[in-house]
Amino acid sequence: MKLYSAPGFTSLADHIAMQEAGIQFDLVKVDLETKQVEGGGRYTDINPTSYVPALMFDDGEVLTENVAILAWVADRAPRLAPQGHLGRYRLLEMLSFIATEIHKRFPTYLSLPEEAREPTGLQIVHWFGFVADRLERGYLFGETFTVADAYLFQLAWGATHLGFSLPEPFQDYIARIRQRPSVQAALHREGLA
After folding, report:
1. Which terminal residue of the chain, N or C, has fewer Cβ atoms less than 10 Å from its own Cβ?
2. What is the pairing mode between strands 2-5 and 26-31?
């Protein structure tokens, strides 16, 4: 299978999760500006929205969107999902929250002129603050790393690189997750380490 990714974008979360799960895949870099894939071809032929990630299975089926791909990974590696009778739904709840309240604001923030970014930046910090208390026990769902942590890590790591000052637990959270072998491998493989 192939994971279509752009270094530094949220496809890094899927890359980390797949590494963590021990899933074998080829990483294909996408140039989001030209919409070309490494080795040739148009990315819009794979994913018409031109967003990353996209996961192409060996049979040619393509799965897109972080929430869907991360849930697929968690189904293959249940240790990467919260447990209990509502575990899968709590995971979907958190992945959806991260996607709609945090992730979706970054493209807006980055597309605005610098002098107009403050309101959106404050919303981003607010929603990171909303989940900050959940990190007191280590990760979003307590003491166990999940695919949702891969997603939140990528966004928090990216936010700090953009100069955002995130609530206190995030510095430790980012540093701790960055040391995971799966994260180190993904960062190295994408040329970000």
Report:
1. C
2. parallel
Closest C-alpha among 98, 25, 40, 130 to residue 16? 25
CB distance 109 to 124 below 8 Å: yes
- 19-70 pLDDT tens trace: 999 999 999 999 999 999 999 999 999 999 999 999 999 999 999 999 999 9
Give the residue-averaged pLDDT of 114-127: 96
User: How many C-beta neighbours within 10 Å does residue 56 have?
Assistant: 19
Q: What are the tokens at 115?
A: 């002098």
The SS3 assignment for 178 reads helix
Using an 8 Å Cβ cutoff, are 35 and 44 in contact? yes
pLDDT, residue 193, reads 84
Q: Please tell me whether residue 82 adopts helix, strand or coil conformation.
A: coil
Q: Is the full-model pTM beyond 0.85?
A: yes
